Amino acid sequence: MKNQELTIVYHLGELRKRIIITLLTFIVFLFGSFIFVQKIYDWLIRDLNRELVVLGPTEILSIYFMISGVSAFALTIPIAAHQTWLFVKPGLTKKERKITLAYIPGFFTLFLTGLSFGYFVVYPMVLNFLLSLSKGQFETIFTAEKYFKFIINLTLPLGLVFEIPLIAMFLTSIGVINPMLLSKARKISYFLLTILAAVITPPDFMSQILVLVPLLVLYEFSVTLSKIVYRKKRKKQQLDITIIPMKKTS
């Protein structure tokens, strides 16, 4: 009983250590991003042919922290993934350690790909549609806070959604899900992705299709990757079962 309690205390201490390292990394990146926030700000508004308005002096600071926070979050992802890997590492075999470690660059790459898709494809499409609604009817004035919240609300969810293939592979490799489960959940997943596409895009058919198709392809890609991982895992298990009796007979 004492050994079990010591093990729990050790794991909780290790978890605390990994969380603290991740939070400290985020804080470092937050201050680093804040140093270059003006350049990031200028880059984000480079194609916006209108002036942004602030409603008070403190709003400028909150906008800068908002931009810095998202930048720091994106940069912290590989560190957070590595700390998670270090936490589960003792319970993995040598081969499993190598496989799971290989996921870390992929998580970061797919997150950036999702952000890029949101910013370069979805964002201009939605913004142009919204501006067309007010053309000749209203004088549009953008506050800086609402403008950047608008960008973040469009891009950040897509950055997370683009992680689905690697998450599916990882969960399959540790036995939490399998391709059969993903195939059964196809209808509800398609429904949820359709709702997501409808929420983040203008209410016109072509815009929704342009966003929905990549999301559906992403899901099917996840199912395919899950099948590959699942087959390899089953083959390894069958090989292990075959080898064990042979060792006993000898």
Rounded mean pLDDT score: 84
Order of helices and strands: HHEHHHEHHHHH
Assign a percent range to the helix content.
over 70%
Low-confidence stretches: none
Question: Could you say which overall geometry the principal axes of the C-alpha atoms support?
Answer: flat
Rg of Cα set:
23 Å
Helices, by number, come to 10
Number of separate strands: 2
- Structural class, by secondary structure, is mainly alpha
Q: Report the span from N to C terminus.
A: 39 Å
Sheet with the most strands? Answer: 2 strands, parallel
Which strand order spans the largest sheet, edge to edge or round the barrel?
1-2
Q: Quick recap of the structure?
A:
It comes from Neobacillus novalis. Forms a complex with TatA. With 250 residues, the chain is mainly α.
Describe this structure in words.
It holds the Pfam family TatC. Belongs to the TatC family. It is a multi-pass membrane protein. Part of the twin-arginine translocation (Tat) system that transports large folded proteins containing a characteristic twin-arginine motif in their signal peptide across membranes. This protein is mostly helical. It contains ten helices and two strands. The protein has helices at 2-35, 37-44, 57-88, 94-101, 103-134, 144-161, 164-173, 179-184, 186-200, 205-249; strands at 52-53, 142-143. It has a two-stranded parallel ribbon. α7 (164-173) runs parallel beside α10 (205-249). The relative contact order is 0.08.
